[in-house]
């Protein structure tokens, strides 16, 4: 099921901020997966010895993990600050 807002978008609304963080993280994961799979595919079929691909993948994965931790920690904080 696609994520949806139940009201018009407002940048100050915690629900909107949570959805925006999730979408940004999902986009980051998608770009990471697509880019790295292409780089490693080309590296494999050309028998290239690209040492930088390992560093790129590890660095980007570390940033992706940090982004995920930040996105879900922010989401938890937004849930706690939302008045019921």
Keywords:
84 residues, 2 helices, mainly alpha
Question: How does this structure look, described?
Answer:
Helices cover 74% and strands 0% of the residues. It is mostly helical and 84 residues long. It has one domain (22-81). Helix 1 packs antiparallel against helix 2. It is elongated and about 55 Å long.
Number of helices: 2
| Backbone structural class | mainly alpha
Oligomerization state of this entry?
single chain
Radius of gyration: 18 Å
Overall geometry comes to elongated
Q: Could you say how many structural domains there are in total?
A: 1
Q: What is the rounded distance between the termini?
A: 25 Å
Poorly predicted regions are: none
How would you summarize the topology of this molecule?
Elements: H1 14-45, H2 52-81
């Amino acid at each position: 099921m696609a994520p949806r807002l139940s009201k018009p978008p407002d940048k100050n609304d915690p629900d909107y901020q949570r959805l925006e963080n999730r979408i940004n993280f999902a986009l980051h994961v998608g770009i990471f997966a697509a880019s790295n799979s292409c780089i490693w595919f080309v590296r494999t079929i050309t028998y290239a010895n690209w040492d930088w691909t390992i560093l790129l993948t590890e660095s980007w994965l570390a940033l992706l993990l940090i982004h995920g931790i930040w996105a879900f920690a922010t989401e938890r904080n937004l849930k706690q600050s939302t008045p019921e």
